[in-house]
Design goal:
alpha/beta, seven-stranded parallel sheet, 17 strands, elongated, seven-stranded mixed sheet, 355 residues
Length: 355
C-alpha cells in the first residue's frame, strides 16, 4: 500500500497507526511513491510525506502526478481532518493517473470530535463552566481564521462544489462504526479512499476485496492462437495494423466491466522490420495506457519483442522469479507487485491457464 499525505505530521500519524497494527512501514519524505514487493512483503505500507498543502494548487497537482507516474498497488490519500488542502484537485489528479473510478473523501475523525452529519462538518468543543460539550460547525471555530484554507462554510458541497462532478463521494460519519460501513460499502478495488486517520484505520482493518484478479494478456506474436478464457478480446484494428498510431481507434472499453482483457493481432498480411517495430510499439503503448488505468494484478505477455517493448514502456526492469510453468513460460514478480508471465510466441502455454 502507498499512502500519500499532504503534510509531514499527517504522514507520521498514518505511519504510527500502520506500525501499531503490525504492518511493515516506511516513511519517505518527498521521494518517489514506490514500493519493493519482494523486500517489503505483502504487509508493507509506504507513507510518502509531501508538502502539497503548502503549495499552490497547480504545484500540488504536478507533485501528485509526479508521485504516481507509474502503476502502484493500493493507494490511500491522507488528508487533513479540518478540510484544508487542495482536496478536489489532488484527488482528481490521482484518479486520472491511477485509473480509480471514483474517490471516497471522508475527513471525519469521531474520536477527536470531528464528525459529518447531513453533509455538514462539525467539531465538538468543550462547553463553559458546567455546560456540556457542543458540536460547532467548522466555520464557527478557529479554523475560520486559517491563513491558507479558512473555513468559510461547514457544508461540504459548498466547500468542495466540484467534488461530485469529479466522481468524489462525501458521506456522513458521526462514529467509527459509520466509517467502517462506508469502507465496507465502497471497498471494491476501484475506489480511492481519502481522508483522516479514522478512515485509514478502518481501511487497513477491512477485508480485502474479493473480486477476481485483474489480468491483462498481450498476444503480440502473429503466431498466436486464439485464447478462450472467458476474458474479452480486443483485436488490434486493421487501421492500426496498417500503420496508424491513433490508439483511440482501438476499442478496449470491455476492460472497464470485465476487469480483464486480451489484446491480440488478428492480421498477418504485412511483413518487414518496419512492420514489426510498429506492432510492438503500439502494443506497448496500449499496454502502458491500460496498466496505468486498471493496475492489473497479472500481466501476461506472449512474444519476446512485445515483452521487451512493453516492459521498457512501463519502466519495469527488475524482477524476482516466481516459477517456471513450462519450458519458456516463466512467472516473475515486478518490484511494484504485479505478477508478470512471459512466453515466446511459438511456444505452448503449458498448464498456465489450467492451474
Amino acid at each position: 500500500m502507498i499512502v500519500i499525505a499532504d503534510d509531514i505530521t499527517g504522514a507520521a500519524e498514518i505511519a504510527g497507526i500502520a506500525h501499531s497494527h503490525g504492518l511493515h512501514v516506511r516513511l519517505v519524505c518527498g521521494g518517489e511513491a514506490g514500493c519493493d514487493a519482494e523486500e517489503d512483503g505483502a504487509d508493507a505500507v509506504t507513507v510518502v510525506a509531501t508538502d502539497t498543502r503548502s503549495m499552490t494548487e497547480e504545484e500540488a497537482v504536478a507533485e501528485t502526478r509526479r508521485l504516481v507516474g507509474a502503476p502502484h498497488p493500493v493507494i490511500f490519500k491522507k488528508t487533513d481532518s479540518a478540510l484544508r488542502g487542495h482536496v478536489v484537485a489532488e484527488l482528481t489528479a490521482l484518479m486520472e493517473a491511477t485509473g480509480y473510478r471514483r474517490a471516497v473523501y471522508l475527513p471525519a475523525n469521531p474520536s477527536k470530535g470531528r464528525i459529518i452529519r447531513d453533509g455538514v462538518y462539525y467539531i465538538r468543543e468543550a462547553g463553559g463552566k458546567g455546560l456540556p460539550a457542543r458540536e460547532v460547525p467548522i466555520h464557527e471555530t478557529a479554523f475560520s481564521y486559517d491563513p491558507e484554507f479558512p473555513a468559510r462554510t461547514a457544508v461540504l458541497k459548498e466547500r468542495f462544489p466540484d467534488a461530485g462532478a469529479q466522481g468524489i463521494v462525501m458521506p456522513d460519519a458521526v462514529c467509527d462504526e459509520d466509517i467502517a460501513r462506508v469502507v465496507a460499502q465502497y471497498n471494491d478495488g476501484q475506489t480511492l479512499f481519502a481522508g483522516a486517520a479514522a478512515l485509514f484505520t478502518a481501511f487497513i482493518l477491512a477485508p480485502a476485496p474479493t473480486t477476481p484478479p485483474s489480468t491483462l494478456i498481450l498476444c503480440g506474436s502473429t503466431q498466436s492462437r486464439t485464447l478462450d478464457l472467458g476474458i474479452p478480446v480486443a483485436p488490434m484494428p486493421r487501421a492500426i495494423y496498417d500503420g496508424a498510431d491513433d490508439l483511440s481507434l482501438w476499442d478496449v472499453t470491455a476492460y472497464d466491466d470485465a476487469h480483464s482483457l486480451i489484446l491480440s493481432i488478428p492480421h498477418t498480411h504485412r511483413t518487414g522490420r518496419e512492420v514489426a517495430v510498429h506492432l510492438r510499439t503500439v502494443m506497448a503503448r496500449m499496454a502502458r495506457q491500460l496498466v496505468a488505468k486498471h493496475r492489473p494484478e497479472q500481466l501476461i505477455i506472449e512474444g519476446g519483442a512485445t515483452a521487451w517493448g512493453t516492459l521498457q514502456a512501463l519502466g519495469w526492469t527488475d524482477f524476482t522469479i516466481v516459477r517456471q510453468v513450462a519450458p519458456g513460460v516463466v512467472q516473475m514478480r515486478a518490484r511494484c507487485g504485479t505478477l508478470v508471465t512471459l512466453k515466446p510466441g511459438s511456444y505452448p502455454w503449458g498448464g498456465l491457464f489450467t492451474m
